UniProtKB/TrEMBL annotation:
Belongs to the IF-3 family. Residues 11-78 form the Translation initiation factor 3 N-terminal domain. It comes from Ibidorhyncha struthersii. Keywords: Initiation factor, Protein biosynthesis. One of its GO terms (biological process) is mitochondrial translational initiation. It holds the Pfam family IF3_N. GO terms for molecular function: ribosome binding; translation initiation factor activity. It comes from the Eukaryota. The lineage of its organism: Eukaryota, Metazoa, Chordata, Craniata, Vertebrata. GO terms for cellular component: mitochondrion. This is IF3M factor.
Amino acid sequence: EPKRKAAFGSIGRRIPYRILHVINQDGESLGHMHRAEALKLMDQHGLKLVLLRENAEPPVYRLMSGQQIHEEQLKRAEKKKASPKPGLYIKELSFSSAIAKNDLETKTKQIAQWIEKKHHVKVTIRQAK
């Protein structure tokens, strides 16, 4: 059982699979090869092997430079930041500046309950006429 992968696949010499599908740094397929051959190729070119697809048969690895790995990590972090998190709810509440004291207290209690449940709360106050 391979160890849990970090944010960006397994990088370097610890490869739990014997046969790999290797892609060079330009994106061209080098075909299936044994782990020892892939490591030899990695050392010759001064690159690192990065796991791209673990579920494929055989697993797909790509030869990358440190700069390429860094850029890919930045891209993935940006994509993850842009996608909404599962279970994250944004509650929105809107009321007038001429709200009655009683109504304001009720809405304040509701906001407090939402915050306790870890919801994001957006409050909009409209100016009364």
